[in-house]
Write a structure and sequence with these properties.
mainly alpha
């Protein structure tokens, strides 16, 4: 590798003597603009892929959730706010953030087709199912920081997802 680097250093001037053809920069920028326009479709593919992943996860996890293996009927569901005032403040902050994003999403003037609405609703529903699963785990392990952080991450993921959807809708409107 050293010899290759030395070769390029010694012959640097020989590589820099050619000029770019006229209009090269304009053609490059035009192609770059075309690439940026196609990223919207890639975003929807990414959303669809995450939806498929979460759907498969929920399909395999539903037996545990609905058969009550995570939560017995007489147990109380624990929320972050039940743990401490610090977590109550965190939970209220993220709940308010999620609610404001949902209101913003609902007030967009752009029309979505039924498939898009269904996909977004299913993604939000899956995030809710994941949160309930984490709540059930928190019932078993009240002081497990990993579960608490995962619950906070779930709120952050929900806000990020809603931000992503809102921005994408605004760009395509």
């Amino acid at each position: 590798m050293e010899t290759l680097n030395n070769f390029f250093q010694k012959h640097k001037d020989e590589f820099n003597d050619l000029e770019l053809p006229k209009g090269h920069e304009q053609r490059f920028l035009k192609k770059l603009g075309e690439v940026k326009k196609s990223t919207g479709l890639k975003l929807w593919y990414g959303i669809a892929a995450s939806f498929i992943f979460l759907s498969m996860f929920s399909f395999f996890a539903k037996d545990f959730i609905f058969k009550g293996q995570f939560l017995k009927n007489n147990e109380k569901i624990i929320r972050l706010s039940d743990l401490s005032p610090k977590y109550q403040e965190v939970e209220e902050y993220y709940r308010a953030g999620v609610e404001s994003k949902i209101v913003e999403f609902e007030h967009l003037n752009c029309k979505l087709n039924e498939e898009q609405k269904k996909m977004i609703d299913l993604e939000l529903e899956q995030l809710d199912v994941n949160y309930k699963t984490l709540q059930n785990e928190l019932n078993k392990n009240r002081n497990d920081e990993r579960i608490i952080n995962a619950m906070i991450d779930n709120y952050q993921n929900k806000i990020s997802f809603l931000d992503l959807v809102i921005n994408q809708i605004k760009q395509n409107c």
